[in-house]
Amino acid sequence: SGGRRLLSEPLDTLTEPCYTEVVDEGIAPTEHLFYLRKDKTMKEKTVEEIFEQLREPFPPHDIQWRIGQKSKDGKKAMVLPYVTNRAIMERLDKVVGVGNWYPEFRPVDAGGEHGMICSLTILLNNPDGMGTYELTREDGANNTKIEPIKSGISDSLKRAAVQFGIGRYLYNLKESWVVLGDYNRFDPPNLPVWALPTGFAGA
Q1: pTM for this structure?
Q2: Pairs from 184-191 (Cβ < 8 Å, separation ≥ 24)
Q3: Strand order in the sheet with 29-34
Q4: CA-to-CA distance for 39 and 93, rounded, in angstroms?
Q5: In this predicted model, what pLDDT tens digit does every residue of 29-50 receive, in sequence order?
Q6: Strand, helix or coil at 170?
Q7: 21 with 32: CB under 8 angstroms?
Q8: Are strands 176-179 and 132-142 parallel, antiparallel or unpaired?
Q9: First-to-last C-alpha distance (Å) of the chain
Q10: pLDDT at 130
């Protein structure tokens, strides 16, 4: 079984306690080193500023759309937007700092269904300016039939990120219907001005 234990003496290059985690990789448990490296830019930000920046809208190229349901004749479809995992990770790197956040995943079975839970942790400054603390929020997603492990990990990370406000604004968009072409291809809907980054001038 896996476990975590704090190292008594962190490495010189790190500002936060390190820990190792024993991970069962199917052959023999392997000990991995994890750590939080405090980004200098984070020291200049309050918790409120961090959450405000995490909630900022993404440019259209970071938004993808999937079909939610089709019309009876199959010629149109309601499409649902979501933020790509790459954009989520880049947002966390930029706002919180590289090394100041990490996800953990665990499988879950309930009601005959299989899924994945993502626990997303970020490092924040204490309000009194003395030290830092970890804030963890989690959410889960079902595994799909196609690439079930990958889909469970990917979708659960998206949902956990929403718990920090990342991409949450997309839930406020009105229903979007598109005309379907060959192989269910479609042109993505235009996003309203309020769902675009401040000063966005892209095509």
Answers
A1: 0.76
A2: 184/67, 184/77, 186/65, 186/77, 186/79, 188/60, 188/63, 188/64, 188/65, 188/79, 189/65, 189/79, 191/57, 191/60, 191/63
A3: 4-6, 19-24, 29-34
A4: 10
A5: 333 344 444 454 556 788 899 9
A6: helix
A7: yes
A8: unpaired
A9: 51
A10: 79
Is 125:46 a contact under the CB 8 Å cutoff?
A: yes
Q: Give which of 103, 88, 97 is closest to 58, Cα–Cα.
A: 88
What is the percent of the chain with per-residue pLDDT over 90, rounded to a whole number? 65
CB 133 within 8 A of CB 124: yes
Which token pair is 203?
Answer: 């095509």
Mean of the pLDDT values across residues 163-169?
Answer: 97
- Beta carbons of 154 and 160 less than 8 angstroms apart: no
Q: Is 160 exposed, middle or buried (0-12, 13-18, 19+ CB in 10 A)?
A: buried
Q: Flag whether pLDDT at 25 surpasses 90.
A: no
Tokens of 54: 């995490």
Is 79:66 a contact under the CB 8 Å cutoff? yes
Around Cβ 118, how many Cβ atoms within 10 Å? 24
Which tens digits make up the pLDDT trace of 109-161?
988 889 999 999 999 988 877 788 999 999 999 998 888 889 999 999 999 99
pLDDT, residue 60, reads 95
d(CA 119, CA 72): 39
